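HUMAN: Please help interpret these C-alpha cells:
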Amino acid sequence: MLILRFILAALLMVSVIGFFYFDGGDYLSFASVQSLQGVLLDQVAADPMLAALGFAAIYVMITALSLPGAAILTLLAGALFGLIEGLLLASFASTLGATLAMVAARFIFRDWVALKFQDRLRRINAGMDKDGARYLLSLRLVPAVPFFLINLAMGLTRIRVSTFFWVSQLGMLPGTLIYVNAGVQIGALESAAGILSIELIASLVLLALLPWLMKFGQARLKLWRQMKHYPRPKTFDRDLIVIGAGSGGLVTALIGAVVEAKVTLIEAGEMGGDCLNTGCVPSKSLIRSARLAHDIDAGVALGVRVSEKQVDFETVMSRVQGVIDEIQPNDSPERYREMGVDVRLGQGRVRSPYEVEVNGERLTTRAIIIASGAYPILPAIDGLDPSFCMTSETVWQLSDLPKRLAVVGGGPIGVELAQSFARLGSEVTLIEMMPRLMMREDIDVSVCIEETLAAEGVRLKTGHRVVSAASGEDVILRLVDEQNGDEVSVPCDGVLFALGRKPRTTGFGLEDLGVALTASGHIEVNDYLQTNYPSLYAVGDVAGPYQFTHTASHMAWYAAVNALFGTFKRFKVDYRVVPWCTFSSPEVARVGLNETEANAAGVAFETTRFDVAELDRAKADDARQGFVKVLTAPGSDKILGVTIVSEHAGETISEFVLAMKYNLGLKKIMGTIHIYPTWSEMNKFAAGVWRRANKPERFMPLLAWYHRIRRGGG
C-alpha cells in the first residue's frame, strides 16, 4: 500500500511539473481560447461526439490533477457546445475530476494526517458526520473558494465518496452555469476576470449561507413553538436553581454562590448524593477492611503470623457508616447555607423552563441545572424473591455477612464488591453474561483480574445469563451458558445486582416539558450542556457520557459558567482527558484510549508495556501483579492512552493524566526524577521501554565509530 501511494504521488508530481514545464497554462489562457475558438468550433462541427468526449476527458484530467484552467475550460464549454450541452459537460466533468482529486488525496495523505493530527481530525470528523454535506455545499456555492483546496480538505475527512459527488454536483452548478453562459458570449468578453462581479459574488455567498440560514431558522421556529407556552418572566427570584445535591449539583451551587449569584439547591434525599451515601465512600471503606483481611491471610509470606483471623462484619459495616458520617458535614445543608446557597430539602419539580416548585412554593429562575444522578438497574428474575435482592445502594443495609453471595454483573462495581465480600469470608459467585469481566478494558486486563479473583476463591461464571430462580430459605439461581446452552445452578443466600445504573429522569417534571432524551436514556445535551430548552442544563450521571463523580464535578463548572455568563461567553465541555479507576486489587486505572477502543476507531498506535513484577517497590511490597501499558502515536512519544493494572494505580496514573492534558510526551516523563523506591517509578520505566524501542538505530553505527575514535582505535 505504501509503494502504491508513493507511485501515485510521484505520477501526480511528474504530471504537475510537466504541465508547468511545457507551459500548459498558456494553452488554457483566456487569450488562447479566444484565438482558437474558430478552429475548435470547426472540430466540434466535424465530429460532435468525439469532440465532447475529448473535451470532457481533458476537463476531468485538469481538475483531477488540481491544475489551473478549470474556469477557462468552463467558458470554453459554453463557447463550443452552447448553454445546455456545455453546462452538462462542464458540470459532470468538473464533479468527476473533483471526486478523483478527493479520492487521490485521501489515498495518499489521510493516513499521514490521521497519524499526526489524530485528536484534531477526530473532532473534525465528528462535525462532518453531523453537518458534512452542508459544509461542502456552502463551500462549493462560492466560486472564490479555491477548487483544489476543497478537494484536498474533504479527502482528509471521512465523508462518503457518493455524498461528496452529488453535493459537489449540486453546489458547483450555479457557478458553472454562470461561466458557461458567459462562454456563450466569449467573443464579447475582454477577460475572464470580469465574469464575477462583486454583486454576483455576494449573491453566491448569500446562496451558500442559505442552508445554514434555513437550519438556523428551523431551529428558532422549533424553539419558538416550544417556548411559546412558557412566557419568560420579567423578573426572577433566582439566578440559578439546581436539582440534585450530588457531586455535580454541589459543585454547581458552590460556583454560583462564589460569583455572588442567587442560587437554590434542591435535594429530595441525602446531601452528597450516591457517591457519599451508597457509592464511592462506603465501597472504598469496605474495600479497606477487605484488604486488611486479605493481608492477614498473606502475612505468612511476609513473616507475620496471626493465630486467628476473625471478621466482625457488623463492626465492618458500622465503620462504613462511620466514615460516611465523618464526611457528611462537608456536604451538609448547614455548610452550604453558610456559603450563601439557599438549600431546600424536598422534591423539586420543573414547571417551566423558568420555574421550579419545591415544598409547595414556586420559584422563578434564569437557569435550571438538573443533577439528579442515576440509580442501579434491578432486573425482574422469574422466581426470585425481592427480599433476597440487593444493589449497590441497598447492600449497605446488611448486618450479617452472607455465607454464599451471588454477584450478577462483572463490571467495576461487581468486581470490587465480589472481591471484597470474598476477602471478608463469603463464598462468592460472580456471574457475567459477556465472555469476560470488565468488557470495556483490554483482554489482558480482564485476564489479570479474573486470575486474581479465581486465586482468591471467587467462583467465576463468565458467559452465563441468569434466567430464573427458586426462592425458599435460600436462593437457587438457574444460569444458562451463552455459548453452548448448558444450565448451571448456583445456590446462595443473597443476590447482589451490579448491572449498571440508569439515569434518573422522571418524577420531577422533565417528561411534562418534553425534555429530549438520548437512546441510552440520558438527558440529551449539547456541547454547552444545554438541553432542548436553552435555560435547562444537565450534568453528571443523568447527562452522561461518563458516570463518575469526578466527571460530574468537571461538568458542573461548565454548566454553572454557561448558565450564569453564557450571554457573554460560552464554553464547550472538554472530555479529552478523563481518567477512571476500578478499585479492585490490583487496581485498574485508565486514561485515554486502550487497544480495544483504538482498533475500533481505526486509530494507529504503538504499544509499550512494562510489567510491574520488574519494579523494586512491587517486589518489596510483594505485589507483583499487573502492568503499565502505554499507547503512543507511531514514531512519536505522544501519549494516546494509558492503562495501569497494579496496586495504587489510581494514584500513579495522575502523572499520565497531566502529561496528556498538556501534551507532554513520554520523553518528558522519562526525564523527570522519581523517588526510589516508589510505585510512580513504573511510569518512568514504561517511558524507558518506549525509548529503547525507539532509539535512532541509523545513528548507532556512527556513535560506535565516534567512541572507537575517542578510544584511539582508528
Remarks:
- The first strand starts at residue 238 and ends at 243.
- Residues 605 and 633 are 5 Å apart (CA to CA).
- The chain has a mean pLDDT of 86.
- The radius of gyration is 33 Å.
